[in-house]
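INTERNAL AUDIT FORM
Audit reference: QA-55
Scope: verify that the stored structure record matches its stored sequence.
Auditor: D.O.
Record contents follow.
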Amino acid sequence: MTPNIESGKRLFSAFLLILFITVLGFNFLTPMLADDYSYSFSFQTDNRIEHVSDIFPSMAAHRQIINGRVIPHTFVQLFLLMPKFVFNIINALNIVLLAVLVSSLFRGNFRKRSLLCLCGAFMLWNFTPAFGQNFFWLDGAVNYSWGISVFLIFLFPFIRDYLGREKTVSPIWMLLSVLFSFIAGSWSENGSIAAIFAALCLSVLLYRREKKFSIFRLLSLLSAIAGFVFLMSAPATAGRAGEMNFSALAASLKTVVSESKKVLLIPYVIYALTFFMAFPSKDKKRLALSFIFFLSGLGSLCSFIFANYFTARHFCVTIVITVIGCLINFELIMDMGSKRLVQGFTIACAVVFAFNFVLGALDTLVIFGKSVKREQLIAEAIGRGEKSVCVEAYQPFTPYSGAYGLEDLYPDPQSDTWPNVSIAKYYGLETVEGYYP
């Protein structure tokens, strides 16, 4: 092994280690929030989840009254049974896995991969709205950032075949992959449809090239579609379909477009410019792959036209796969001899990242301090035999705090407002009230 290859591997390993430590630190500083309290209880019995066996009937009821995302929420309830540090470690490992999956899309040495992954990390930090909800908050991370890893694993065989990477796959791995495809298809409404769309596009391109369908890829695609049908056929989800009409769809479209302009204008401009600059590349397969990622992200957004609500965390899938598309374009630009352009862009992103990171870290520390004080006040009230308590509500000021944009304690202790009731029930109190200093 040459010294350059060895140093490149060390550089990439250092990047992954720093990424793991950073995410782990933010995870430890992010307390239980909002839905975490609700998912600590069974949706069937309304009692506290105490055993793994309690989760399955809970998720059966969840499918009836909330939505069909029973697989990610099974993990949510499982983690809420365990000490918080278990989730913290596994969630940080998932971010490392996500970086490795993205790096596998690139060719060449580890120095180039390190640069592209670093650029992607800066872009995600700078452009993802409600970043803390998607990557640090327990319920949000499992539903969204974990979903990205699931979708990329599902897409990997399609991408591998499309790029012509020869690899022998055993029948057992094929079977596991087909079963995993069902999980990918049923993970989330917007993410799963994006992954299925990308797999379908790659399958069509492969068919045009090979003039035949791979049974393995066909079964994987059909399994993912079956998973999506399972997700969307949940009574809680299907029952809302009848509520949609032309006026509601038009209002939803207006909301999606207006919010997308605020969040996606700069990332989309970057994608358009990098795609234009990469267009002269002779590697049209990778250019097409980049465009498929872009279209998949757009399709993910379109799915929210039919949704009951649309929040900042719903941009996660679109932002991540748009950034992946940009990185593929950057790789093509580098291959054409414009490495300094990519380095310069990464440096510019790093400057913005530095300010955002410091502010986000301070905000997260402030909320963590408030959560410690909240726990202390509640414990003291319980020790005195009190059934009601008033604590300070969280007021984060950056999207890097997991609490940013999430509902927290309201001022009226007598109301049945969520999440007041879930938090009170979690601690065995009658009421919990929030105040704003």
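Auditor finding: record pair retrieved intact. The CA atoms of residues 29 and 365 lie 7 Å apart.
Action required: none
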